[in-house]
């Protein structure tokens, strides 16, 4: 097991509740890592305030100030490389990344997605589950690949969908699980137990099933 602290760079676009869960896990000794930087594509992301309050370096790279996606990703890659991060942790980061960017950090890019992948890739997952009459929904943590939300799944956690649920009700139930499982996955990565090999998620030298590690 690795004893050196893994360096994490967290990418956000909004509230930052997953970032806060990581900060709290580090402070509580449940995550042996250092969050070396938080980068947002939106200036008004409250997650930037959470990072500042925790004394973590922040950077806003506003995507509206770049000519196109490729130009933005070149600058984002440069900023991340300057931090010398061991993992790039997408936590509500709402930009589709170019294949060139993803390839530059292959195996070091993680994302949390609010659905039971491969169901509901993309956006508005909670309303889509409700509209489809699903009785179960949930969250997936996966390695990021060029295919949007198509990377190998590491872990999933399931929640019930109730008849009278709104999208916000369901989002809150899912996010309770997010805050629990993302720090756990990062602790596996930081300990050197979690890798991506041949587009598969590997935990403790064992290939994980397509639905990942079955969280309790
Ligand atoms: N190449 C990849 N990029 C990203 C992945 C991925 O798996 N491969 N995961 C996403 C995260 N994500 C869902 O989990 C996601 C984020 C953003 C979008 C999207 O449609 N973004 C739009 C802008 C939307 C907005 O600003 O509100 C866009 O980029 O044009 C879909 C899914 C992160 N990137
Ligand atoms: N497609 C990406 C996506 O929708 N991600 C979702 O954005 C929220 C961010 O919350 P946070 O900013 O409070 O961590 C989380 O629920 C995460 O699953």
TrEMBL record:
Species name: Alteromonas australica
Catalytic activity: N(1)-(5-phospho-beta-D-ribosyl)glycinamide + (6R)-10-formyltetrahydrofolate = N(2)-formyl-N(1)-(5-phospho-beta-D-ribosyl)glycinamide + (6S)-5,6,7,8-tetrahydrofolate + H(+)
Physiological role: Catalyzes the transfer of a formyl group from 10-formyltetrahydrofolate to 5-phospho-ribosyl-glycinamide (GAR), producing 5-phospho-ribosyl-N-formylglycinamide (FGAR) and tetrahydrofolate.
Entry annotated with the keyword Transferase: yes
Domain of life of the organism encoding this protein: Bacteria
Protein name: Phosphoribosylglycinamide formyltransferase
Residues the entry annotates as binding N(1)-(5-phospho-beta-D-ribosyl)glycinamide: 16-18
Annotated SUPFAM superfamilies: Formyltransferase
Domain Formyl transferase N-terminal residues, every copy: 7-186
Family: Belongs to the GART family.
InterPro entries: Formyl_transf_N (IPR002376), Formyl_transf_N_sf (IPR036477), GART (IPR004607)
GO cellular component: cytosol
Pathway stated in the Swiss-Prot or TrEMBL entry: Purine metabolism; IMP biosynthesis via de novo pathway; N(2)-formyl-N(1)-(5-phospho-D-ribosyl)glycinamide from N(1)-(5-phospho-D-ribosyl)glycinamide (10-formyl THF route): step 1/1
Residues the record lists as binding (6R)-10-formyltetrahydrofolate: 69, 94-97, 111
GO MF term list: phosphoribosylglycinamide formyltransferase activity
Assigned EC number: 2.1.2.2
Transferase found in the keyword field: yes
NCBIfam families assigned to the protein according to its UniProt record, in alphabetical order: PurN
Site annotation Raises pKa of active site His: residues: 149
PANTHER family: PHOSPHORIBOSYLGLYCINAMIDE FORMYLTRANSFERASE
GO BP annotations, alphabetical order: 'de novo' IMP biosynthetic process
Enzyme class: transferase
Keyword entries, A-Z: Purine biosynthesis, Transferase
Active-site residues (renumbered): 113 (proton donor)
